[in-house]
Amino acid sequence: MMQRNQTDLWPFYLRPLTGCLVLSGCLWCADASAATPALAQAKLTDLTLEELANIQVVTVSKKPESLSETPAALYVITAQDIRRSGAMTLPEALRLAPNLQVARNTAGQYAITARGFNSTSANKLLVLIDGRIVYTPLYSGVFWDVQDVALGDVERIEVISGPGGALWGANAVNGIINVITRNARDTQGSTIAVTAGSTGSLATARYGGALNNGGHYRVYGNRHDWDNTERANGTEIKDSGHLNQTGFRTDWGGGAESMTVQGDAYDGRIGQAAALSATVQGANLLGRWQRTLSDSEHMQLQAYYDYSERDHPAVFAETLHVFDIEFQHSFSPRLDHSLVWGGGYRLAHDDVTNSAVLAFLPAQITQHWSNLFVQDEIRLRDGLMLTVGSKAQRNDYTGFALLPSVRLAWKPAPDQLVWSALSRSVREPSRLDRDLYAPGQPPFTFLAGGPNFRSETADTFELGYRSQPSKNLSYSITAFHSRYRHLRTFESSTKTLDNKMAGYTSGLETWGTWQVQPGWRLAAGLTLLRERLHLVEDSTDVTGPAGAGNDPAHTWMIRSMHDLSSKQQFDLTVRGVGALPNPAVPAYVAVDFRFGWMVSRDLELSFGAQDLFDAEHPEFGTSATRSEIGRNIYVKLDWHL
Known about the structure:
CATH superfamily: TonB-dependent receptor, beta-barrel domain
Number of helices: 8
CATH class: Mainly Beta
Shape: globular
Helix content: under 10%
Oligomer: single chain
Strand content: over 45%
Distance between the termini: 37 Å
CATH architecture: Beta Barrel
Number of domains: 1
Largest sheet: 22 strands, antiparallel, barrel
CATH topology: Maltoporin, Chain A
Radius of gyration: 24 Å
Mean pLDDT: 91
């Protein structure tokens, strides 16, 4: 691995502290008696498997329901899971979900997907943070390098593998990630968390207090730094970077009526392996109003504004403004029906500065999306539930699309659930599909846009089973088969992007949890995937099927979380990822561990390692440009003042 020179030592040791300086004054002035003893309450035994099964989730049906009752391949990453994993970033936390594939390509760049089609520009996964959609209309994917969520404030992450278009619309093709942060009333007092590792560092400072009108608030600041990586030949890649982020959340009410206002702002520099460093900045502001009219009737109105800038010197620069508003209403018109309906409108103004390398034409564009959705849960008889729904969505490129879904759930026993689903989902065209030209000036000899590009479609059948045969054991298993049509191709004969690829994926996802002893829990997961893609019509794309289907045939994970005593914890994770065919990446096994020591009820010191037995390995990309992901040894201090 790369050795640091002396000029690197000073910032390496001091930079974790810089992120705390933003809020240091208010932290030291805070009333220590108001602190939430989160560390003291974070024992493994706080949540039994029955309580975990009854966690209220919202992503599957857009309303609260128990995890054990949800007819979907849903995995929940809890706050406790995140804390005990040692994860520093959101992508690292997502590795805890066995139904996701998370691969790191460079120091700050990730490829994340569910059920195949992974790449650093993966575009079939819908990602939300507190209800705010974070995928970009530039290419329908996520810039993971700027999703710097304060993980200590996350309540849970709901991860669905499989389609969700009937409620969530386009881009929810292969899965949904819904990051849900804690209510401000649950983050009172002051917190400082500092992590220093051999590959990077992170510092977070947060303060929460009460408002005179009965509400609560919190403010936070993050400073995240990551180091350069290396190629297999030992050449250093200039892909280090840093990100500063600050934000707030306020919550009022909590009974019949509640209101949330929250926002974030960030700026940073991100190293590029083959180009000058990119600069990024952005901000968002979200408001959400909820009202409970009765036990079975609820309303919600949410709106947000999202602003972002990216400047990749000599390649492109983008300024994006997004406004989104959505309303939903759930009620029971009859005792055996539970209906949720709503609609939304989304506007995005995109302004791109083109270069000699590539161009988005037109450089400025304003896009509009609108939708209406309805879903009805029908109780056919005790233990048998039919759910039918659909979303009608319109975009400027291809017009209207209808996204129907039918689900059937049967409970043969109180601790068992058998379910099946048939769904249609689409990925609407992005600017990359329609408006990308290369080089940046005529005659566009390499790529001349995608004037005929239409939506990609997927029809998916799922069959699942979830059970908790005893108070100490629970598991879930899902089989799926998806048929894809109109997938993206590059037609060399016309130098345009088109939809001349089709195929299917089939697979199996399973995971389970075993409470071995009151203070010792084991969790395991396995995914199997088979992809078969082919060209259709007269396509001249010779690399499309191989590139689109470059996914591991299997992934697996085993996690052990052990309370050695009331003050000591030992956590171990072993992950296995199968080989990627093209570009070829060898299979690997990663071993992570963490040891935590509760120095006092409000102070925890932990240390651990990621990839303990592997100095470095590749996870994604071509051998000529990809990074070797190195071992990370870290120390973390978590202090609730």
